[in-house]
TrEMBL record:
Transmembrane segments: none annotated. Coiled coil: none annotated. This is Isocitrate dehydrogenase. NCBIfam families: PRK08997.1 (NF006529). GO terms for molecular function: isocitrate dehydrogenase (NAD+) activity; magnesium ion binding; NAD binding. It comes from Arenimonas metalli CF5-1.
Amino acid sequence: MTQTIAVIRGDGIGPEIMDATLQVLDALKVGLTYDFVEAGLSAYEKQGELLPAATLDAIHRHRVALKSPLTTPVGEGFSSINVELRKRFDLYANVRPAISFPNTKSRYENIDLITVRENTEGAYIGEGQNLTADGETATLVQKVTRRGSDRIVRYAFDLARRVGRKKVTVVHKANILKSTSGLFLKVARQVATEYPDIQCNEMIVDNTCMQLVMRPEQFDVIVTTNLFGDILSDLCAGLVGGLGLAPGANIGTEAAIFEAVHGSAPDIAGKGIANPVALLLAAVQMLEHLGKVSEANRLRQAIIDTMAAKDNLTPDLGGTGTTQSFAAAIAARAAG
């Protein structure tokens, strides 16, 4: 059965890593067809809009999108295109796996954890921002709801059960933020009682940061609020070699967007040396979401085997390969 997905080639290195990723997906022969749409700076320059209606319509219609990094112009439009997409499609769950890969610059081995971040509320959304006329005082509204807390914690426990994880760590700051973080923790405790097969523990966010650096192996699935999740997921990426190996899934009930979480890196755009692994790993998440689990496993293993063999690795991984030659090496293994 053929599945059409919306494809956003993005800005900076985005088109290069997207072409590489689609090359590998085509080699897998997973029955995907692509509806290419635009967003970000490239869309703004051509159409005068950061998020054209045709792009939003395509995501709504296909319900699945694969997205390269986007550039939000300074002083123009949305504060963040990614935040706007999450709001538009109610993509409430941000899922960021951090897994060790061979031949990286990581200080750790055998890291295998998942951060599940609430994606649509909390301080990160930036609601109610205000600066007084004299420029001396800035304020921000932080809103956390029972509904938002319930569905993200439930998503984390369901994910843990579905993929065979044994523990969920609820990360909070309820000792100080007694209303917002306190509500999140209270709801998490209630939800956890419905999953007796999954161990649940609680950890204050400061201690979580320290523990991730000291003993990351103690974590399995982390669930937390938006701002904490944004910070912790990047910390977890640092445990396995950086954002070049960090994919992200943004999941809602009506749509899902899969992305490389790093930036558009305009300083190396067009040089053919960008690492496509983050977007390839996002494609792994996408295939799993589409129920193509065996193909997702085959793609993940092809990435691992190519990196283990040091076959055409890009310069950031210590090799001399190009974006396309690295992708070709992965595609050859994925095709079997």
